[in-house]
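Private note to self, pasted from the team thread so I don't lose it. Backbone tokens:
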């Protein structure tokens, strides 16, 4: 059951910074926000079927500048693709936040994304979501009792220098942006079956 989802509206509209959003948060807040996000994703896919996972939606805004093939840059993502991508981004944020919390300089990315074409069932999506929950909680548990919040690095200039809290939350912000996409894919898939 979702409690109160973290609201990224003011960050997205540049009314507040990431630092202001996380002000006063504790590691336990990050655990709760992780559960809220995973629960929201699980709720979004609760009525999905295997056919929905591989359904090719229509997405006029599809622009994947990191696509492996040029032909895939405007390919609308399947539900399976969105789930593994969102998980990978939040897991990477959790891994890098752990490095920062321990006082280790971040020098490279720490990302693995399950090949989306291998995700063909809703059970695979559910397992991926629960695995991601487990990994994120484990990385938070590895934080020292007093995390280093002065250790920062710049990932994208627009976000400014990130510390362990802002880096962790950045993954949830990215995942939150994919929730409407997940809901739209399922909506289109169900409409196509009628």
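Design output:
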């Amino acid at each position: 059951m979702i409690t109160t989802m973290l609201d990224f509206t003011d960050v997205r509209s540049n009314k507040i910074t990431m630092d202001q959003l996380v002000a006063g948060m504790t590691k336990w807040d990050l655990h709760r926000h992780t559960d809220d996000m995973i629960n929201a994703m699980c709720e979004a896919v609760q009525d999905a079927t295997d056919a929905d996972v591989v359904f090719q939606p229509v997405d006029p805004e599809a622009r994947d500048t990191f696509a492996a093939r040029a032909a895939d840059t405007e390919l609308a993502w399947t539900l399976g693709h969105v789930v593994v991508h969102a998980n990978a981004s939040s897991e990477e944020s959790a891994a890098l936040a752990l490095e920062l919390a321990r006082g280790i300089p971040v020098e490279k990315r720490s990302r693995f994304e399950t090949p989306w074409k291998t995700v063909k069932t809703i059970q695979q999506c559910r397992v991926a979501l629960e695995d991601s929950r487990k990994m994120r909680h484990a990385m938070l548990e590895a934080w020292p009792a007093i995390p280093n919040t002065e250790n920062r690095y710049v990932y994208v200039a627009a976000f400014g220098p990130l510390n362990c809290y802002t880096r962790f939350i950045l993954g949830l912000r990215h995942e939150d942006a994919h929730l409407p996409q997940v809901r739209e894919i399922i909506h289109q898939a169900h409409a196509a079956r009628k």
